[in-house]
Specification:
By secondary structure, the protein is mainly beta. About 5% of the residues lie in helices and about 40% in strands.
């Protein structure tokens, strides 16, 4: 019963979001007067091409818009804040620093992250490297910074009143999207490895219903045009197969230790299996590829309705810190 009540509260949080709180690292505690959902609200810019961040209101801003963003520190407090940017699934995010006046003294710093960081967890988690992080103070980055996927982050600490920065955000076409983040789990997405080794994923920051529409994983050899329908093969990872699709969820952004309902593979052009009901902070579909095959999987995401909670295939309960 306790797990069911937790699941109901999680789904309800997606419908009634009271504010924005994105804790992580040494972030300050804000808005202590009310309880806030883990799930952030996407705040629209009041004007499509211009926004001035109010430090008292927008320490943690989530935006899906293009345009200019300005920040000027209102105090000498060493608060760590963030601008969480998200675009359409087939887009990348490009950021240009127009100016940067952040003294390095007292720990002043502005950092660009190719992806998101939240609660010490990074997304995408599979291929993190130092090139995905650009840190600056005193001098603005000269190059245009472009993300590998449809989400990016600017973290900043400006402990000097009147100092700040300005950026311009553009969304660019991504011809080969691999990792996709979505807030509203309502759409059809196709993951492809294009014959290359590596992992791709769709991560929905919400409990979701997931259905597989078509599947071609671990079957189509790059040098052979002949393919035979195998149907959907289940528990492929346990069978020792190298290419498969994990379906499950995680508590937070890091899906490398996700809970998995099933790992599927095979060639099934009309998969049509029963959808999975997943009650987790993040719902994840992850394509794992060895590079030996041309893999693709098409999945449908939709919001998880309250009536399906008792029939949930997975409920992720966050671990309690002692």
């Amino acid at each position: 019963m306790r797990v069911i009540l937790y699941a109901l509260a999680m789904v309800a949080a997606c419908d009634v979001i009271t504010g924005l709180y994105l804790p992580g690292m040494d972030y300050p505690v804000i808005n202590n007067d009310k309880e806030l959902s883990w799930f952030p609200r996407v705040r629209r810019m009041p004007e499509p091409n211009h926004r001035v961040i109010n430090p008292s209101d927008d320490c943690f801003l989530v935006t899906s818009d293009e345009g200019e963003i300005f920040f000027k520190s209102a105090s000498d407090e060493p608060s760590v804040c963030g601008i969480y940017m998200i675009a359409d699934p087939d887009k990348k995010i490009q950021v240009t620093f127009n100016y940067l006046d952040v003294p390095c003294e007292n720990g002043g710093l502005v950092a660009w992250v190719d992806g998101w960081e939240l609660n010490g967890q990074l997304w995408p988690a599979d291929d993190w490297n130092d090139e995905r992080l650009v840190e600056s103070c005193d001098k603005r980055p000269q190059q245009k910074l472009t993300s590998s996927q449809n989400a990016a982050l600017i973290q900043y600490r400006v402990p000097a009143k009147g100092k700040g920065f300005a950026v311009t955000v553009h969304h660019l076409k991504n011809s080969k999207p691999c990792n996709i983040m979505v807030f509203e789990p309502n759409g059809v997405y196709t993951l492809r490895n294009h014959g290359e080794a590596g992992n791709c994923s769709v991560l929905a920051i919400a409990p979701s219903t997931v259905g597989v529409l078509s599947l071609d994983v671990g079957q189509t050899i790059k040098s052979s045009p002949l393919n035979l329908e195998t149907g959907t093969i289940h528990f492929c990872k346990k069978r020792g197969l190298t290419d498969y699709v994990d379906i499950g969820g995680s508590s937070g952004l890091d899906y490398t230790n996700m809970e998995v309902i099933d790992s599927i593979c095979g060639l099934d052009s009309v998969a049509g299996q029963l959808p999975a009901f997943i009650v987790c902070e993040s719902t994840v579909v992850r394509l794992v590829s060895s590079g030996l095959y041309k893999n693709s999987v098409t999945i449908a995401f939709s919001p998880l309705v309250l009536e399906h909670i008792e029939d949930a295939d997975m409920i992720c309960v966050p671990s309690v810190k002692k």
